[in-house]
Each structure stands twice: as structure tokens, then as C-alpha cells.
Amino acid sequence: MIVFITGASAGFGAEMARTFAHNGHRVILAARRTDRIEDLARELGESALAVTLDVTSQASIDAALAGLPPQWRPIDVLINNAGLALNTLPAHQVPLADWHTMIATNCQGLVSMTHAVLPDMVARGSGLVINIGSTAGHYPYPGGNVYGATKAFVEQFTLNLRADLVGTGVRATNIAPGLCGGTEFSNVRFKGDDAAAAKVYEGTTPLTAKDIADTALWIASLPPHVNVNSIELMPTCQGFSPFTIKRAG
Ligand code: NDP
Ligand code: 8X3
Question: Is the CB of 98 under 6 A from ligand 1?
Fold first, then answer.
């Protein structure tokens, strides 16, 4: 399989690249940090190709796809993994620019990539789009505001893709992980405050990027008649918050 992975310069994306490559597949590593994806491509050898990509830019998406060498087509699996959370401030305090960046990356970037790759999959009668959602798209929490909303979008967009793709042979899946450590997610969210980022995982055994990569590989390896619509994973140590009740007095 040829697997196009957005956000392959770190975290889930880099681990998915390693996992697919080590299992005999070819991986296209896409992200903004060219040095990172080129290092990873060198590590993985002939089974990897680095492609600089900013999913928030249509011109960047068009250039990345148009520049693919013929032997790196067709794309069998698109993994829309590039994404981020910014901030945990409440809605009335968070900078608007953070909301816009999350929407541009997690929603607009994801749909733009899908829109670019899907017609060819449908024409060939096979393909798989794996979107990386989040438990934040299923359950609200304080400070999750727009991040959670973008991931709810990912969940519903994936299900609506399924509705349109019935009968085409093209599959679509939302993977929705909960607390996952060992990636740059919280460092990005807390804007370089690494102590605050580390605190998120203190005393926990979170999911790992490998857990997510193994899940993606399993989904992509299922026979063509099986579509995993949505799958949610949490570490065993994570549960559900009680409803907040603000009592008078
Ligand atoms: P990381 O911060 O480690 O990785 C994020 C990746 O996204 C990086 O490779 C980054 O690359 C890329 N990226 C960000 N913006 C863009 C952009 N505009 N264009 C292209 N690539 C971009 O985070 P994770 O690996 O943890 O997260 C991956 C996905 O999983 C995200 O969608 C996240 O929301 C989701 N998720 C994470 C969870 C967690 O707890 N870690 C849990 C549930 C979901 P570069 O900066 O080089 O462009
Ligand atoms: C990341 C999981 O709980 O930090 O999507 O929102 S959480």
C-alpha cells in the first residue's frame, strides 16, 4: 500500500510512518518541518518519501500532490493526522487566533486533503481515508472549546464521507484517541511550556503513539468489505468526568 500521512514529522504521524513501513508498505511523509521528515525518510530508506506540506494552504496541498513521482501514486491510504490543540483557556479568554488556527488545521486542512485525494480513490474503486479525531470530539471538558468542536467535526465528516462513499469501494474511519503521551501535542498546546505539558501525564500510563499506529495499521489491513466507521481508545487510567453543577451560595 502507498500511505500518505499528514503530520509525519512528530508524534502519531512519525510512528504511523514507521509502523506501516516496517510492515512492508510505502509511506509519504508530509509536514511543514522538512528537516524532520527528511531525517525520518532517511531512517526508513526506500519505503519513504518526504513531502513538505502545510495543510492550511491549498497551494501547498496542490504542489505536494502534483509533485509526487509517478511511482508514488496512487495513494491507497490517506491518513489525515496533522492537527493541534492550542490553549486550555475558557472560551471568553482564549485568543481568537488560536481558534482560527485549530479550525484551519483540524477542519479546513483535513477536508482540503480529502477533497484532493478522494476522486482518484473513487475512480479506482478502492482506498481508505483515516481521520484522526479525538475523545475531545465526543465529550466536552473545560478549555476544550474549539479543539473539541474541531474533533466533533472530524467525527461527523467521517460518517458523512461514509454516507457518500457507499458502493464506491472507498472506506473511511475516524480514530478517536484519549490521553496519549510521548508526542508534542501538549507542548504545542501549552506553547512551549514543557513543565505544564509534562504535568498532563503525571502519574498516568497514557496511550502511546505506537498504540495509535497499530490501530491504524489494523484498520488498513482489514479485508475490503470491512469498514471501521469510528473507533475510540482511552488509556485504562482515563474515565469520564462527572457533570459540573454550580451550586448557589
Ligand atoms: P504532535 O504535535 O506530536 O504532531 C502533530 C503533527 O501535525 C506534527 O507532525 C506537525 O508537523 C503536524 N502539523 C501541525 N500543523 C500542520 C500543518 N498546518 N500542516 C501540516 N502538518 C501540520 O501531536 P500528536 O501526534 O499527538 O497529534 C496528532 C493528531 O492526533 C492531531 O490531530 C491531534 O489532535 C490528535 N490527537 C492527539 C492526542 C494526544 O493526546 N496526543 C489524542 C487525540 C487526538 P509540522 O509542525 O512539522 O508541520
Ligand atoms: C487530545 C486528547 O483529552 O487532550 O485530543 O483533548 S485531550
Answer: no
